Amino acid sequence: MQTEKTFSDGYFSSKLLETLDHIEYRRIESHEDFEDIARLRYRAYKAHNVLPVAVSSMLDEIDFDSHAYVFGVYYYEELVSTLRIHYVTPEHRVSQSSGIFPDAINAFLDAGLTLIDPARFAIDAEFANERSTLPYLTVRPTIMAAIHFDADRMLQHIRPSHAAFYRRFFYADTVVPPTMTKTYGFELTLLASRTREIRSKLMRRFPAFQSEAFERRLMFDRSSRFEISPLTILPTARIAVRPDSPEMVYVT
């Protein structure tokens, strides 16, 4: 990823906003869209040699869990990346991280905490280089989910080499040190960010992660008010409230 200096200067923050002007998000619901997501996952994982061991499909049962939200990110109307987000509660414990680090996840949930667990991150190889802003805009819905659900922690189960980035970028704490995993055949570590503590700092540092409440509802609301999921969701960072506003820091 980028150096800490790059993250700290205003240039990169402006670049994020400029790229976001050409981004649309789509909550994946249709069979055809899921097939596109599966193909993108396969290409991205194969290119980085991180295909799960003995995998038979790039779609799995928990893609369709009631607390799972699969997103496609479209750049100039082309699918370029994807992310799945789980909203995990003591009553609903389905998540990607729980299959890898069950003891740590259950400890959070047994303490009554709620979690946002991003998984299945995949990005087109053309946009995966260190100078691309798209990886950061792909994880933008993770922050939005933490605000929408007022979750206690955002999780990151990642390769150890990426841990320093998440500690800088998401102010994350190490929960489980590097551990060999059977699912992937390589080491992963588990980090967690204290969402309420970092929101205002993160929004001030990167205004592209701001969002209006109605954008978050379009992304995550499955109530009867939305009988049909919106085809695409346009980012609202440029019109969002100021990061030091209570509406931005706390769920309204």
UniProtKB/TrEMBL annotation:
Domain N-acyl amino acid synthase FeeM catalytic core as annotated: residue spans: 36-192
Organism domain of life: Bacteria
Record Pfam families: FeeM (PF21926)
Record InterPro entries: Acyl_CoA_acyltransferase, FeeM_cat
Record-linked SUPFAM superfamilies: Acyl-CoA N-acyltransferases (Nat) (SSF55729)
Name the record gives this protein: N-acyl amino acid synthase FeeM catalytic core domain-containing protein
Species in which this protein is naturally found: Neorhizobium phenanthreniclasticum
Upper classification of the organism: Bacteria, Pseudomonadati, Pseudomonadota, Alphaproteobacteria, Hyphomicrobiales
